[in-house]
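user: Kindly work through both lines:
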Amino acid sequence: MTRSNMKGKICLVTGSSSGIGKASVVELAKKGATVVMICRNRKKGEAVRTEIKEANKDAKVDLIIADLSELSQVHRAAKEFKEKYSQLHVLVNNAGGINSDRKVTPDGFEYTFATNYLASFLLTDLLLDTLKASSPSRIINVSSTGHKMGTGTINFDDLQTERKYNYTVAYAQSKLALIFFTYELAERLKSSGVTVNTLHPGAVNSGFNNGFKGIARLSVGIMYAITGISAEKGAETILYLATSSEVEGVSGKYFINKKAVPSSKTSYDPDIRQRLWKVTEGMMEQHNYA
């Protein structure tokens, strides 16, 4: 059963100016939640907030501007949130990206890995005390069935895909890393009142090809236009995990179409999972983000 009333609940959604992030924010606001959007583009974020407020003048929607590919901005966004809010009941790590050509962030990380994985790891860590203080609370990590593509594992010798960049491999590795993060965090949060789950939203027609160039941009755009589902449909599992009483207490699961299903065989390897956590912590410490 899905809660029709989320009044009193504070929800934070990253990457919420378009696509499934926007669709999630719209629905959570309709249900009465106070929704905080983290968006890279101020103009787009303000347009979404205005749209929601015009539909319902009582809607509570806040906006934080941050490019989460830059970890200093992840820190700033978390600080800005905590200065204003003492509670957080739902955290949706949705922001992500993919590029046909290799890009590097100001921190020196490959863009896809930084945006899809490192940002979620750091933001969650920075907000974990607030989530615990607000329990029962929920963390939702938006992964993808694409985690099964590429090499199907984590290449610790080339996490930043410096040797040979392939966007499929980079994307798959980042989404697999997010699943490993989800499963390890679920173990660490047992009995805390905080649950953490991950999901594949479906092939959503929502500008997924924005990071592509030339023929790759055209071909991926056409494919998603033909076969992709709507952002509203893609957001259904996010909203289910954010609001349903059916998943109260459920943690460490991978969902598709509102059902817990197995992720890849590799994603359950505890040795890889724990090694990745330690390596990620090392990255944070090296860049003074711990």
Confidence is low (pLDDT under 50) at residues 215-224. DSSP finds nine helices and eight strands in the chain.
